Amino acid sequence: EVQLVDSGGGLVQPGGSLRLSCAASGFSFSDYFMDWVRQAPGKGLEWVGRIRKKANSYTTEYAASVKGRFTISRDDSKNSLYLQMNSLKTEDTAIYYCTRGYPAALDYWGQGTLVTVSS
Amino acid sequence: DIQMTQSPSSLSASVGDRVAITCRASQDIRNDLGWYQQKPGKAPKRLIYAASSLQSGVPSRFSGSGSGTEFTLTISSLQAEDFATYYCLQHNSYPLTFGGGTKVEIK
To answer: Cβ contact (<8 Å) for B87 and A45?
Structure first.
């Protein structure tokens, strides 16, 4: 059974940093691109970014709203995905979900982890 | 960026009704589209992939159609458990973009 478990959320001040994690199981993690998606309170879904697999040199793509501040990484030996968030703004407050990307096209999602950016 | 215009933004319907939700892409995305259902406090669940393929385990009352720029999610006979918010997603090009969502409420 495919499982994605998000963790690492919490309360952080504007300008601060936070690192989210996603633990994957039940599939060959290294064969998939992986994505992060977020949802601000009461709002719709926003794609954050993607990391490709080793065969694609672990290259990344980001939404314009987070580019230069957020970094996606992965550790295939630990079946884990990460989202390093720096220079956080109040508008980054959201639930963050990891999800399985290409070739799965965002089929399975983690349960989400809440990030609150507030002073 | 590809804009996904989803309509309606909300609708009221009764159990047993046929419901259709539309997404229009600002440019051709072939069939690189998925439909998702989200209930309060839960992660989105994919219903349809490749515009018209039913995700394993999803009831057959859900169906998807369309290609290019016009897509439709249809629920043939609305059930109580279908009251939720629905989103489309294009994954044809970066950045991936979602429709604004359709909240399906009980009439």
So the answer is: yes
Chain B nearest-CA residue for A112: B43
Q: For residues A79 and A86, is the Cβ–Cβ distance under 8 A?
A: no
Structure tokens, B1: 């960026």
* B46/A107 Cβ within 8 A: yes
SS3 sequence, A7-55? ECCEEECCCCCEEEEEEEECCCHHHCCEEEEEECCCCCEEEEEEECCHH
The CA dihedral of A41, B80, B99, A66, to the nearest 10 degrees, is 30
Contact A45 B46 (CB under 8 A): no
Share of chain B above pLDDT 70, in %: 100
* Interchain pair B87, A110: CB under 8 A: no
Distance CA A33, CA A101 (A): 5
Local structure of B47: helix, strand or coil: strand
Cβ–Cβ < 8 Å for B93, B4? no
| A108 interaction partners in chain B (CB closer than 8 Å) | 46
| pLDDT (tens digit per residue) in A13-27 | 999 999 999 999 999
Determine contact, residues B35/B96, Cβ cutoff 8 Å.
no
Residue keyed to tokens 């009704």: B17
Chain B hits for A45, Cβ within 8 Å: 36, 38, 44, 87, 89, 98, 101
